[in-house]
Amino acid sequence: MANPPTKTSSLHILLGFFLALSGLGLLQEAKSLGINYGQVGNNLPPPEKVLELLRSLKLSKARIYDTNPEILAAFANSNVELIVTVENNLLATLMDPNQALQWVQTRIKPYFPATKITEIAVGNEVYTGDDTTLISYLVPAMVSIHSALSRLSLDQFIRVSTPNNLAVLQESFPPSAGSFRPELAAVMPQFLQFLAATKAPFWINAYPYFAYKDSPSKIPIDYALLNPNNPGMVDPNTRLRYDNMLYAQVDAVAFAMARLGFGGIEVRVSETGWPSRGDVNEVGATLQNAAMYNRNILRRQVRGEGTPLRPNARLEIYVFALFNEDMKPGPTSERNYGLFQPDGTMAYNLGLSALSTTSSTSTSTSTSTSPASISLTSAATKVKRRGYSSLPYSIFIYLLGFQVFMRRQC
């Protein structure tokens, strides 16, 4: 009996397959597509093999959740744009400008510019995390890190921002009613002022899956999966039509910022994805849905789509995630967001060959990269929270609004 293929040989076989596909130019136009490269696993391939995988997929953007020196060294001279992360537990320390300078000198400067670090994500989902003390640390830490970059003449190459959970929104439906939670009123203007002054984007972690999982009878699956042939919804205030929930969530953030006087800040998606497996109560977590969601992300990226509010600005999206990570805590879905298994085999068939027609027949009309400013014509409507007690508030509001909209259509 022949010896079974090793992890390395399986990965090389897969790489050859994708190299053949990439020669058809299937992904070469998805210039705004990135991938989240998590490392919460005890069986993941080494960074050098991960880089080969990214090259084979023609992915030139990646995000990691730390400043792992092995990854930073392996990605040198690869031309892969890399977002690195300051862990939440370092925020209090890095408020100190001297500590921030030392951090940049030891964690960033030795690798740049050989490793193309383009952004530093300071913390992750700080404004909605359990440790509320971190909220007051976030902007001071961002300011200190940016100042350190400036002192080292790196600020023109590396931006500073932070990924936010969609739950920073008090209301998100319809998108034009987007507004931030009242408890963030004291800190959000300061944060947005920093982004505007440094021309950094507002990053959002947006998962239509969660809304669908918690209310599958109220959220149409095609709308959640970004399938284009569905009725979608029309924002009653702007008359903009949305054929998918992700774009509606992104525009809700843009309107929330505009409400505070910051209508020109770009919104980017730092995380989005769909699990291929889940527990019994995790409705919709299937191989078929995961493949469809990520396939639609790819198709839309190849077309260079923007959102209905900003149709001429490519929406930058980082898919979560590259690998299934076996050591992540929580429900089964948390360990099954990956496009690939740790041995390099596909978690499911993305159907990349289906993109060839789209790639060859579509031409992008989205050439502008600067977001449009927004003028508001309506105020958000306050809705009392009732039921859905386990949902993030923004998802509850979205479900309630969508339910009202669907009733009006009937």
Describe this structure in words.
- The chain is α/β, with parallel strands linked by helices.
- Helices cover 34% and strands 11% of the residues.
- The chain has 13 helices and 13 strands.
- The strands form 3 sheets. The protein has a 9-stranded parallel beta sheet with strand order 5-4-3-2-1-13-12-9-6. Strands 7-8 form a two-stranded antiparallel ribbon. The chain has a two-stranded antiparallel ribbon with strand order 10-11.
- Strand 2 (61-63), helix 3 (69-74) and strand 3 (81-86) form a beta-alpha-beta unit.
- Helix 1 (7-22) packs parallel to helix 2 (47-56) and helix 5 crosses helix 6.
- The longest helix has 17 residues, at 135-151.
- The chain starts with 6 loop residues before the first helix and ends with a helix.
- Mean pLDDT is 85; it is low at 1-26, 352-394 and 404-410.
